[in-house]
Amino acid sequence: MGGAPDVADTGRVLLRILFLLCTSALMTARAEDYTYFLTGNAGDARPAGTEGALLLMGGGGDVDEAFRWFVRKAGGGDIVVLRASGGDGYNDYLFSRIGGVDSVETILFNNGNAATDPRVLAIIRAAEGIWLAGGDQARYVRYWKGTPVAAALNAHVRAGKPLGGTSAGLAVLGEFSFSATGEGSLTSAIALANPFEPRITLENDFLHFDLLRGVITDSHFTPRARMGRSLVFLARLLAGRQSGARLVGIGVDEKTALAVEADGSSRVFTTAPQGRVWLLLPTRPAESLVPDQPLTLRDVDVLALGPESRVQLPIRAVEQPAKAGVASVIKGQLSFPP
Known about the structure:
Elements lengths: L6 H27 E7 L12 E5 L6 H10 L4 E6 L5 H10 L4 E7 L8 H9 L2 E4 L4 H8 L3 H11 L3 E5 L1 H4 L5 E2 L9 H6 L8 E2 L11 E4 L8 H13 L8 E5 L3 E6 L3 E6 L6 E6 L14 E9 L4 E3 L4 E3 L3 E8 L2 E3 L3
Parallel strand pairs: 2-6, 3-4, 3-5, 5-6, 9-10
Antiparallel strand pairs: 1-4, 2-11, 7-8, 10-13, 11-12, 12-15, 13-14, 14-17, 15-16, 17-18
């Protein structure tokens, strides 16, 4: 009573303080790995059901009608937006403008550590719909490839839930992807002049969606004249495939989206006057695919899809294409009739 503090008690107090400091530091470190934004109900939604679907959007502006389709596929449940740059711009857009959702959660990945964070993984696994925002696809590949996040995205689609992406988020959806992990931007002119240019970084074994087998995607397609570089991607991939293996490039224009149902039937939504989804179907290997020499690749079937068109994936059967033609590249020069 009133005596000096017991040494053991003092030790326990110090240990408690040390534990709290360590816990606080760990929580701070985890918080720095990602940033979390919530709009709507913090509880877990229990919708009647979801439908499998993929939404491939070309960037340059969101397509409201396509997002309403996406939200319906999610059963009006919880939408999780994944990104590695930017902020919470999709929260109000999806919750207030599109509407019909229980909540919108955004996880902004600041580094790759968040790809193993238990809370992040729990949020992704509980989502009814997942959206991959634009930005830098190199970060998605570096942060997520071979991690529980990639496994969770694959499991989400297998479970019959909708997933989609725009711009950089679109770039990683196919069996193959242009990862953009090289230095500097890659234009069609650069790629066609040297199909082994170091900036041409192609990935596989990242995401695995049955309806996008043999697919490599590209966004901002017509405004940024990306048909040339997409043909280079296909030539490179075709050279590494077994005979008879089918490859297709899917290029999506800005303010345009390809909505893919669970059975593969697909249609185009667009707010652009000439918004198209482009299918590039190579018929033969490249004649010239040599480092430091321009590409020669002939007779690539090209189909442009508009709102009236229908395509069946993964077999690529098309009804009512907006345009059909043949593209060739001769010594690095692209030829495609307007």
